[in-house]
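Working notes for the structural subgroup meeting. M.R. asked for a predicted model of this chain before we commit to crystallization trials. I am recording the input and output together here so anyone reviewing the notebook later can reproduce the run.

Input as submitted:
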Amino acid sequence: MRALAGAANSEPRLRADARRNSEQIRAAAIGAFQGRGLTVPLEEVAKAAGVSKATIFNRFGGRIGLIEAVVEEVVARELFAVIDHARTIDDIGERITYYVTALRDLQYRQPAVNDVLLQTYPHARQLMEICRVGSEANDELVASGRASGTLRPEFTAADLQALFVDTALALKHGTRPPRADYDRRTTYLLDGIREPPPASGRR
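Returned structure, recorded in token form:
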């Protein structure tokens, strides 16, 4: 499994109590961010960790530093697993179906994924690296899909990115649909981007 560049912990050796505080903050942030996205108030993270908000700033420098410390567990690990697995699927039609379905599933289950797609915190270097990797995966998928005739020839990687971003906006700022409706719309989306089969001749 790949790791984000620079994700290794570089903070100096801490006293036992300070190290324990950092671990509690990380655990609380992972739980909060996975459940409600990266915009959860830091006061709530601090309360869950049993520390003050000032301690988060002392240990991580604020929200951006905290996001950088946990984004691999919250977003990157699952997202990169989807990308890597998609690349193992030989049939391009199956690859496209898996990739789009799995990404939309992540968007529904993990609100933090939508914050990444929306680039909510553009100064978070690791979030932008995730966006870069995702953009490359989109480019690769769409290029293969068009070359094989599986995707509509006018469909672009920017279109695919826009579809994911539109979903992110709807899930973050709109009314969350029931899962069955959401999955049904994934099918409609896939049908819309695929090259339609040749029309059969009339008798």
